[in-house]
Amino acid sequence: MIFGLPVISVTIWLPIVFGILVLATGDDKNAPLARILALVGSVLGFLVTLPLYSGFDITTSNMQFVELHDWITRFNIHYNLGVDGISMLFILLNSFFTVIVVLAGWKVIEKRVAQYMAAFLVMSGIVNGVFAAMDAILFYVFWEAMLIPMFIIIGVWGGPNRIYATMKFFLYTLLGSLLMLVALIYLYNLTGGSFAIIDFHLVAIPMSAQILIFIAFFFAFAVKVPMFPVHTWLPDAHVEAPTGGSVVLAALMLKVGAYGFLRFSMPITPDASHKLAGVMIGLSLIAIVYIGLVALMQSDMKKLVAYSSISHMGFVTLGLFIFNAYGMEGALLQMLSHGFVAGALFLCIGVLYDRMHSRQIADYGGVVNKMPVFAAFFMLFAMANSGLPGTSAFVGEFMVVMGAIKVNFWYAFAAATTLIFGAAYTLWMYKRVIFGAVTNHHVSELTDLNAREVLIMTILAVCVLGMGLYPLPFSDILHASVNDLLVHVAHSKLPL
Amino acid sequence: MNLMANLIPAAAEIFLLVMVCFILIADLMLTKSSKIVTYMLVQLTLLGCSLITVGTHQPGVVYAFHNMYVDDLMSDVLKMLSYLGMSMVLIYSRQYLMLRGLFTGEFMVLALFALLGMNVMISANHFLTLYLGLELLSLSMYAMVALQRDSAIATEAAMKYFVLGALASGLLLYGMSMLYGATGTLELGAMSDAIKHGVHNKSLLAFGLVFIVSGLSFKLGVVPFHMWVPDVYHGAPTAVTMLIGSVPKLAAFAFVMRILVEGLQPLVQDWSGMLIILAISSMALGNLSAIAQTNIKRMFAYSTITHMGFLLLGVISGGIEGYGASMFYAVVYMLMSLGAFGMIMLLSRAGFEADTLDDFKGLNQRSPWLAFMMMLLMLSMAGIPPTVGFYAKFSLLNSIIQTGHTWLAIVAVLFSLIGAFYYLRVIKLMYFDAPESHAPISVGSDTGLLISINGLGMLFLGLMPGALMSVCAVSVQQSLLLH
């Protein structure tokens, strides 16, 4: 309870209310007010999520902070919220990144500031809703509502090819969502009239139906993750999105897909999940290896990091579908870590882009001479992206490889190649951008990070290192829920 | 006493007719500049009708005029909504009509006649009453489309509408006469009983059904009987397009319910098969053609075809659940299309029709609030939560999945994905493109308020859809189960 209000509802609605307030400040004459209001909203939004952490009970896998109210009684739909170890950290991550994004867009965004800030605040609330919803329709509403602000963000503040990218993003994800909707309604009728996700977990489903449901969910979640071969929207969206949009896409949008696998696909259709695990692992390994190679060939920094995100998310889906505790916890840690690292990398690229208005690697070179502080931060995040021990990325990747080796040596072998490819594409990019001689005269006019940027980078650096050196607080929260999920997934749900 | 018992169920319609005649005459006395009085009278009439409808509401199903007329919860709810819809049409179109010299007594009187026709259809319990209502509605519409006498395109549209409409009426009548031949009655309940007890001439019945369904499809505007829709929507003055595209959908829903569900329920196997084909082809053709349109009125015409195809899904499912969902869909569709056409009229000025997609370019820079309202309306049409359009789609999908047509649900969602594209394109034009004109948008306080209520209503109903859903479900349940 915060001031007598339920915690989760506050984390969802407070940013949305602030978003509306920011929107109400109107046109760009009031931009300073909009910025300050947005910062206040996002910081408050982050602060109100802290009780979730401090009040969290790590010994149980049950839903906590549960809120349950009638919503649409005709279809037995409830306003049902709750968090467990799997979802709680993502709400924190999301609210945290909202602050970062507001700060990152502080000066850079000059046109329609209020709308920009409002879109991010509203989206922050909606994403929290996705992670906290325990009713399938409530989940679906948040899930699709999430697309609207992102659609606007990419379309209005994006790069030159933004309209193609944002349309592709919207329609791609909508396709998956609509199939999921059909599956949800089918499950509703199967449970005899309940949309509670918990009830979906318990209902017996014949194999043929399980496979179809799994495929429907697969379309919804795999598009969001994104998994090979439905990943093609991501590089477009990332490249065209403004920095803040890229950060939110990488840090959160991708995570809701993997979260969907954990919350829906695996517990609702465990038999189909086992049966199709081979396919999922295959697709994950393709993503890790093939997309890693694709990343190597990119000449655009943002595209490179986008492909690297797909490759890293391959790790996550691999960890999920090898069905052991190492893999699953590794996957979850990898999701959190990737949020920090990819978010930070996009911010770094944003810093360069704001100054040079180019994302082409070839336009840079010798940046270290002009921006030593930036180069140091960028180095840390680049190292983290290649999975250096001591950074957050190492923990998750290592655990997933450990989990994979228990199942099949060659899975682990293929996955581990990412440590080479990841280092290759990230560090090669780093070398070409940061080191070498200054060839472009614009580079020689660069100025180093200002105080605001240093603040953002420092916070993220602390997170990346902190999580890498001492991951225990994070993994403790996951334990109970992950173990419970694994037990659940091990049981067949075929009707007797 | 007997007379009163007959009159009370039809009191609202009688009042409406009396008022229309009164307004018709009163309007003659008014000068051109004081047509606002007529307008106020019309609005008052609508208010009066709604008071009477509420006041004369009786529980259960009440028949009148030898079972030719019925008053049940469904008819009362639909009538109340049609008064609301008509009132909104008039508010939205007042300024638009004034600027074009169409703000005349004829327009308003014809609108009320159309409303009367719709209400007779909604309350009909007999094929003749249905036909009477339908013709009253259609004839008023033909005249309204042609109201702009000096516009060639409007005249052409009216001609097309009239010829095809007359053809459809002919088909309906022909079908009715065959059904009469097969069953010996034109009363809906009696016909249903007669078919249940067995009919000698099965082929006559089958032919009758085919004609009836074709006639219905014409009036609904579903593929392959949709040819008139784009031309009429495009050609008619926007105010008339709005009228055609919104309120009559409620009457059309009632029409389908009365004929297929009350009258021909025993033939459900036969007509649901036909409706599946109609629904799928409407969703396919409507969505695909809408993509290619540059005129927004034409685009909405194709979108109507799609929506009507979607609405049929609930009827196909053949259960109370599905009928309730269809009714909810019809109501939501009416509200969405009112808002969408209202927006077109708001953006139009004297001598300028904002009826191409390009006129919506950069609306966010010209008026962020209107752009936001239009975005809500478009998202609702595309069925994206948290707008109410999603729940309309959701409850229909639920009803067809419940009855085991899961494949149909998948087809429907795939087509609605295609549909999402052209609604998103409107949002894209408003938000992502630069405006082509910087002409100030003058919004009257009444229309401004109404469009705000209409747009925000999409969001509000999307967050709290339960009440309206229940009203639709209960009214269908109480009206159709008691037979």
Structure description:
The N and C termini of chain A lie far apart (about 45 Å). By secondary structure, chain A is mainly alpha-helical. Chain A is globular, with a radius of gyration of 22 Å. Chain A has helices spanning about 5-25, 30-45, 50-55, 85-105, 115-130, 135-145, 145-155, 160-190, 195-200, 205-225, 235-240, 245-270, 270-295, 300-320, 325-355, 365-370, 370-385, 390-405, 410-435, 450-470, 470-490, and strands spanning about 65-70, 75-85. In chain A, a hairpin with a 4-residue loop joins strand 1 and strand 2. Chain A has 21 helices and two strands. The mean pLDDT of chain A is about 85. The longest helix of chain A is centred in the C-terminal third of the chain and has 32 residues, at about 325-355. Chain A has a two-stranded antiparallel ribbon. Chain B has about 475 residues and is mainly α. Chain B has one domain. In chain B, strand 1 and strand 2 form a beta hairpin. The mean pLDDT of chain B is about 90. The chains are: A mainly alpha (about 500), B mainly alpha (about 475). The interface of A and B includes residues 152 and 186 of A.
Q: How do you describe this structure in short?
A:
The complex is a heterodimer of chains A (496) and B (483). In chain A, 74% of the residues lie in helices and 3% in strands. Chain A contains 21 helices and two strands.
